[in-house]
Amino acid sequence: MDLLPGINKLFLYSRTKLSFSLTFILLFPLMVQGTESVYEERVLQARNGNYAALLDYLQHYQQQHPLSNEQVADWIQVASWAGHDDDVVRLWSLWQRKMALPARADAAAARSYRNLKRWAPSLALWDRARRLAPENDDYRIGWIKTLADARRDDQALREARRLVAAQPSAPHLQTLSYVYQRQGKSWDQLLNDTRAYSAAPGDQAVLNRLINALTLNRVSDPALRLSDKAALSPEQRRALELDAVAGLVRLADTPSRSEQTRFTLAQKALDRYDALFARWRHEPGADADIARARIDRLGALHAHGYYHDVISEYQSLSAQKTAIPPWALRWVVSAYLAEKKVDRALAIIRQHPELPPETEEEDQNEMLYALMDSGQYSSARHYIGRMTHNVPYTRYDFGSPTPQPNDPWLVGQSLWFQYLLMTHALPEAERLSRHMATTAPGNQGLRIDYASLLQARGLPRAAERELKAAESLEPSNIELERQQAYVAMDLQEWRQMDLLTDDVIARTPLDLASRQLARAREVHHMSELRINGTQGIHSDNPVSGSHDQNWEAAIYGPPMADNWRLFGGTRFAAGRFDEGKGFSRNVSGGVEWRPRNAWAELALSNNNFHGANKPGARVSAWYDVSDSWRLGGGLERISASTPLRALRNGVSANRAETWVRWYQNERREYRFGFAASDFSDHNRRQEYSLEGKERIWQAPTLTLDLIPGLSASANSHDDAAYYNPKRDLSATAALAADHVMYRRYDTVWSQQFMAGGGAGWQKSEDTGAIALLGYGQRIQWNNVVDAGVMLNWDKRPYDGKRESNLSVAFDANLRF
User: Fold this and answer.
1) Which residues 6+ apart lie within 8 Å of 28 measured at CB?
2) Are 162 and 154 in contact (CB under 8 A)?
3) What is the number of structural domains in the chain?
4) Is the whole-model pTM more than 0.90?
């Protein structure tokens, strides 16, 4: 708000009296009387603000008559009142050589020198005036204020305090206030203006100065209340009302406040803006204030989470050609990011290069996430570089040799960690995050970041322990609860996940991160449809036959009692063999159980093959011993892995399997399995497998993995109607690449490449080469669709003859 008029007229001293000069030598008595009458009239006019009359009179009079020192003093003083500082300096310099001037002439010249920022002659003249009139309080006040202007801070403050100590009157307190103002100590200024108002509550000038000091320090509500006692124009009163509501907006926009407090303050500000709009809509001259109120109101809308309204109001203001300041555009950019419209946010930033960089860590993370989620990795890296360029690890406070932690450096490191995390550079991210968390154990945010890294690496129990340690610092931290909810979801702690999510949503219902958590829980509570299958294009191997077709579908209901889900499904397989076509149909239903650290399914089925229906059953389960070890197994009557050719010939198999998985992190894991099948033709099959994954290389949009595999089997009979080697062994290694072609928030379109080879051995046959090739694409959308298709080709030996197989595989997971 602009300062009230009259407050900054620092150079007028109301108690300075203009004396009447008399001409001592006059030729004629009547002329003397007439001259005095004219002179007195000019003096009265000067006192009423008409300075030109006396100045012109003296200019002409001195050309014909000598002037007394009092008349010269009048001339200098009135010129000072008129603001003619150069004339004052010229007149004083001219006449002080001709006569001894009174103190008031020196004081007027001192004021003009001060206005011209010529501190040394001004101070010298103040000293001279004080010597001539030591009891004049105004001269001492002028001298102290000039000391403050000349930045002789210590002396000015010492003299002002001495003045107040001698007599704590309103003028003396205002002098001390002015010294503090010149030193930039606005709160000390406010204290002394408050004391001055207490000393002279009826003085309008003192009241106006206090209102200005309150406004300067953004203590807007008390300033507005005091304005009821001041004579203000409608424009000034509207400005005070706007400042008061803007104070609420600033409080609501402060991240350190609790969520409920911020929402309450934001809603209170919005209500007051509505009242102001209703009152000012018909006031003349209020258009500019209404425009300012609409701009300030963007902050209240943003703090309350009304991001769509922020965007709508911004578009309305832009359509009306209203200039929006950079600090308000920051809210608009944030609203666009919250609405996942990153392109429009970046367009505003490009159109307004004067926009200040984000100062709050929350805003910086928001921009980084938007760039990353929209696939703009190079822009994200450039953004981090801009935020961390030339930012030192420590800073030095003025006058202190002790280095202090530099918060912008820490924020930059956190941004760099988030970039590494979201670009799959998890080993580098872990080294950085672990170092920061262990070297600053009292920083809860760093420990939460480290826990999110552990979760991203597939170590939810380690993440849970880290979050539990962080909980001791601030149990109700909203970021802590969000991360705990995600970890609980990975650990299948469904009740805990619901409680945490409920609390987060209740506290920050419109926050983007909270809405994402709510969406994850909503997806968890949806029904699920799983579909997968293969379609042979060209195949002549004895396992699947030619023109083979396999597909399976299962639908899972929403969770019941947290851990349970009912499901039902069907499976179909068909293929052509030398002896004819083979078909297999399966309909099943069962229940799934998902407690912490475990999973189990029980299913009953009807299997139709070889012209008959036979009941089947399946039990599958696994148990997590730790983040690294998982044990699993299953029993199945009429196994789904029974070769179709065996079913075509009326042979079924029961199967038992067990396996163990070792998982280091997302870059390395291995699984060893053993299975035994009992065929109805009395054949006994044993199968062994070892498979793994080694991450070789990663970039923001590309990962490259090595997939080694080793498998072996043994059969008790080798004369079955299906492919049934007595002994066989195969070893393969493949490179699998996953390339993200498009990413925009929850929509990801990627392509997959696979190429590999190996060798296969079969008892009584020569070792043959194995070749593998594959290409596919996958789409993920809105967390409810995950579907992919892949074209596969392989060539491997069967009974000593290398057979090729070309097929299309597809899978989809749909939530509804």
Assistant:
1) none
2) no
3) 4
4) no
